Amino acid sequence: MPGLSAPMMNPTARYATVVNSDPRTNGTVNDGDFAKMQEAAQAFEAQYVFQLLELMAPEIGDDGLSGAGFAEETFRPQLHEAIAKQVVKSGGFGLSDSVLNELVASQEAAGRGPAN
Fold first, then answer.
1. 3-state helix, strand, coil in the chain (%, to 5)
2. What secondary structure does DSSP assign to 47-66, as a single string?
3. CA 106, 51, 92, 76 torsion-angle sign
4. Cα separation of the two ends of the chain
5. Domain boundaries, the chain
6. Choosing a second label site near 107 at 20 to 30 A (CA), which of 39, 60, 86, 97?
7. Whole-angstrom distance, CA of residue 5 vs CA of residue 8
8. Residue 40: in which H helix or E strand, if any?
9. At a CB cut-off of 8 Å and minimum separation 6, what does 30 contact?
């Protein structure tokens, strides 16, 4: 999205630029921090997809195969969670990239990266 505080680019490429080409980072944006930020961004996107699926479920209705009973009510959120994780694993909607860009930018703004 244009207008975000961080320039839109692949977060992994941005991380490589931050860590590898700017001597001011002094290693403060390390692989462990980046991996945690990436995991958090993907978890955020998975939760978003899960919520979309949960909101769509009543609109879809009963397909007749699942029985629409107590077992389905118990199983459906687990199915939606699995679908959401797979969607993100397969590339998702791109939301996690935007979130990751903002997380990296916030680290830079906090003095842990090249925007000191």
1. 70, 0, 30
2. HHHHHHHHHHHHHH---SSS
3. positive
4. 24
5. 11-111
6. 86
7. 9
8. helix 31-60
9. 19
pTM of the full predicted structure? Answer: 0.65
* CA–CA distance, 3 with 30 (Å, rounded to integer): 27
pLDDT in tens, 40-73: 999 999 999 999 999 987 776 666 655 667 777 7
> CB burial class (10 A; 0-12, 13-18, 19+) of residue 17?
middle
User: How many residues does this entry show for the chain?
Assistant: 116
> How does pLDDT run across 65-97, given as a tens digit for each residue?
556 677 777 888 899 999 999 999 998 889 999
Distance of alpha carbon 5 from alpha carbon 97, whole angstroms? 14
DSSP 8-class letter at 4:
S
Q: Note the Cα 8 to chain centre separation in Å.
A: 15
Q: Which of 74, 86, 79 is nearest to 42 (CA)?
A: 86
Please count the other Cβ atoms lying within 10 Å of the Cβ belonging to residue 93: 13
What one-letter code names the amino acid at 10? N
Quote the tokens at residue 53: 């699926």
